[in-house]
């Protein structure tokens, strides 16, 4: 096989074109229009939430979520070291202090057993991030948050449609959608996400006052009764009707999108599970993983790191991406004097040895078999 297999590409259907064309034909191309309201309310409903406020991207969603919780200068927020920089930046942009925790070695999400040690008088929130489509273990996070009166920021950017089994030790455990569990939860709809608006994001909450505040912050905090008068510093984080039109059309077929994502994950696992030098994504009994991106981690027993591995795959026409680099290893934060001399061994191993394989919706069985065969030849 000579053709190139991209790591991910969006799948745009006829309905997306129809809705986007409606925006163009009617002139509703900026941040008002029927698609925004409909996308917000239908996404909130899909996630079992009362309010959805769409914004221009997931990073903005995090920033506004932190602000709407009243987190400001000197306040600490606990988050995993292994995540995208947007999470730490959202705290820093609000004057807060990010406090890091290592990851669970199996799910790669926040290591819940390490959170309590990091709670201080200044802690205001815990930010849990569902990584590569697998839910973080939310029950213990929520229990700690209740115990210490903290907010929970749930980053579900990579976990559209993933499910978490809450209260699993009780007689009646409940499957809950990712995005339904935080005091505020956020999503990204970037082009590589299961549901995309090109660029886009959403903040979800069940609190009407907080929803109102987020709506106001999204749009420069215009006072409704006196336009162009502002009592607070807001942002222009608006989304366009065109983006929401794309998102709504995608949401209409989310069921089949999630089925396809899960199928891709399971097909890779079937073919790769016998390779001893590879760690594959898990699906805990309390989780439904959507395998947003199919991540693999090479054993420390192999001297190949993720970058060398990526080159070998690229030579065979297979595009990959490296895993996140820990927040404590980021140059920008070192320059700020943050996280100096801190060590997070699981995160560091994942960053060195992890990468993700092509996982786009157009991927077919022949390609998965080809990619798996190439990997078998590199790591017998
Ligand atoms: C976990 C997580 N949070 C937040 C974001 C930020 O989203 P965006 O790229 O839309 O700003 C991403 C982006 O991929 C992400 O993976």
TrEMBL record:
<feature type="active site" description="Proton acceptor">
    <location>
        <position position="193"/>
    </location>
</feature>
<feature type="modified residue" description="N6-(pyridoxal phosphate)lysine">
    <location>
        <position position="193"/>
    </location>
</feature>
<keyword id="KW-0808">Transferase</keyword>
<dbReference type="GO" id="GO:0000271">
    <property type="term" value="P:polysaccharide biosynthetic process"/>
</dbReference>
<dbReference type="GO" id="GO:0030170">
    <property type="term" value="F:pyridoxal phosphate binding"/>
</dbReference>
<dbReference type="Pfam" id="PF01041">
    <property type="entry name" value="DegT_DnrJ_EryC1"/>
</dbReference>
<keyword id="KW-0032">Aminotransferase</keyword>
<dbReference type="InterPro" id="IPR015424">
    <property type="entry name" value="PyrdxlP-dep_Trfase"/>
</dbReference>
<dbReference type="GO" id="GO:0008483">
    <property type="term" value="F:transaminase activity"/>
</dbReference>
<protein>
    <submittedName>
        <fullName>Aminotransferase DegT</fullName>
    </submittedName>
</protein>
<dbReference type="InterPro" id="IPR015421">
    <property type="entry name" value="PyrdxlP-dep_Trfase_major"/>
</dbReference>
<keyword id="KW-0663">Pyridoxal phosphate</keyword>
<dbReference type="InterPro" id="IPR000653">
    <property type="entry name" value="DegT/StrS_aminotransferase"/>
</dbReference>
<comment type="similarity">
    <text>Belongs to the DegT/DnrJ/EryC1 family.</text>
</comment>
<dbReference type="InterPro" id="IPR015422">
    <property type="entry name" value="PyrdxlP-dep_Trfase_small"/>
</dbReference>
